[in-house]
Structure prediction request, 307 residues.
Amino acid sequence: MQATANVNGLITAASDAKISIFDRGFLYGDSIYEVVRTYSGVPFYYDEHFERLENSARLAQMELSQSRLFLKEEIRRTVASSNVQAGEEVFIRYAITRGESVLDLDPALAKKTSYIILVKPIVDWNPRFYQEGMWLAMPSIRRNSPLALDPNIKSGNYLNNILAVGEVKKLGADDALILSLDGKLTEASNSNVCFVQDGKIISPPHEAGTNTGNLKGLTKRAVAEVCKKIGVGYSERPLRPEDIPSMKECFVSSATREIMPVCGIRFEHGAKQVFPSGGGELTKRLIQEYKKYVAEYTKTHAKEAFF
Prediction:
């Protein structure tokens, strides 16, 4: 297959795709997006991703010019144009920008939203992240306050996360574990974080009012479903750095990472917390149970397959 893009209906090789320099997504990060991956050609949690996109639009006060049905058909056209073959899997990123306007921040000046669909081979993560685990570090950069920017707007403006990742990379870490303004754990740069304590899964919450600045992760939702299915306790509550030493295991979750072990966390003051290499007993079990959950989902949603 080849990486393929669809910009407002024009499908090209991804390297040839173009957007207007007056597009507000380019100018201001005034956009929302979702990422879906396939299993056996079936897009995982497809409707749930669209529900979250529509919620992002509502929170961003962005009136979508494209319907869900229209976008689904455009995604299907783009996947078909990528020449993906049976046995391959794809990464699908679809973004909606507020559209083009003159150089002015007033959102009302944009009259029609634009859409950009990118289809490419699934992300090939460093095998070390699964064999040993990834290192997280806490940067001095803090997560934007939910009072300034609702974290459940899955926005194209990632400068907060980019600065955090840039800082921890210089410390030798693989990703950032970002703290809120009041010192609570939020999440990694593009994935949720979970811990194991007393044989149960604990994760920072995403509910409004917790002031943690977390996206409502769909893969973390699937993890919670897996836990329920196999009888493992799952809960969400505010966590602070001082809670980490009592945790026995740690992992991150996202659509493309799935469940990825964390082998250590570096605190701001330089101390480190080490977790089992390659994931502890429960993390390893969840990785296997998650695969079974995905296989069952793929089977029951086979009619939605793109290829």
Notes: The chain has a mean pLDDT of 96. The chain has two domains: 4-121, 128-295. The two ends are 12 Å apart (CA to CA).
